[in-house]
Amino acid sequence: MDRSGSSVGKQHINIDHPLNILRNSPHYTSDPHFRRRADMRIAREQKFAGGRLFNLDIEITTICNLACRTCYNVSTKPQIMTVEQFSRILADARQLVECLEMDGLWLTISGGEPLTNNWIWDMLQLAQGPDIKGIAIITNGTLINQETAKLMESLGISEVMISLDGASAQTHDAIRGQGSFARTMRGVEILYSTIRA
Ligand code: SF4
């Protein structure tokens, strides 16, 4: 078996490259918004193919508004990062990028639930500039409203990763709590409609 596929008995299964999956999707030709996002993703992948990005993952709080049965943070003491702490970490990372002559910095913000930290927007303001090549937020999606969606868009968030435990309220809520599926999906809809607007 090589990196491009795998063999099961005599049958060969071809695993397509993720960028080709985006390009070959029917949405790529029918939906200009999908095409715009896909082109951005493809451009980013191509630009940094072989490049060196410093990947900085920061948990800006251990606090969360949900209490998932599978939570990795459940026994952690409630803590919240201040803007000053974030600023120092970011400055150190920027200095490292410069010293190591890297191509830039990719920032991933998580928690806990990062949107419970009201200073997140001040932190994201600090993370602007040509050295920041992308910002991702990992969230449960339940606290996304029109205001937060607009802020994410205006602050150039490249990726919002939203956790789902199944495709129905039955499976998701069994792990994440009653009503959480509906709240998360509402966040997804708001975000999607804001980006398309
Ligand atoms: S949403 Fe994430 S941080 Fe919050 S309780 Fe669930 S697993 Fe833990």
- Numbering strands along the chain, what is their spatial order in the largest sheet? 3-4-5-6
**Helix-strand pattern:** EEHHHEHEHEHEHH
Bound molecules: iron/sulfur cluster
Q: Can you tell me the overall shape?
A: globular
Number of helices: 8
Write down the Rg. 19 Å
Q: What percent of the residues sit in helical stretches (DSSP H or I)?
A: 40-55%
Low-confidence segments: 1-15
Q: SS-based structural class?
A: alpha/beta
Query: Residue-averaged pLDDT, rounded?
Result: 86
- Annotation, overall tally of beta strands: 6
Terminal CA distance: 45 Å
Name the CATH homologous superfamily of the largest domain: Aldolase class I
Tell me the strand percentage band. Answer: 15-25%
CATH topology of the largest domain: TIM Barrel
Largest sheet, in brief, is:
4 strands, parallel
- Please write the CATH class name of the largest domain: Alpha Beta
How many individual domains? 2
The gist of it:
The protein is 44% helix and 17% strand. With 197 residues, it is of the alpha/beta class.
Question: Explain this structure to me?
Answer:
The protein has 197 residues and is an alpha/beta fold. It has helices at 18-24, 26-30, 32-47, 83-99, 120-126, 146-154, 169-176, 180-196, and strands spanning 5-8, 11-14, 53-59, 104-110, 132-139, 159-162. A 4-stranded parallel β-sheet has the order 3-4-5-6, covered by helices on one side. Strands 1-2 form a two-stranded antiparallel ribbon. α4 runs parallel beside α5 and α6 crosses α8. The termini are far apart. The chain binds iron/sulfur cluster (SF4). Iron/sulfur cluster binds at residues 64, 66-68, 71, 73, 111-113, 140, 176.
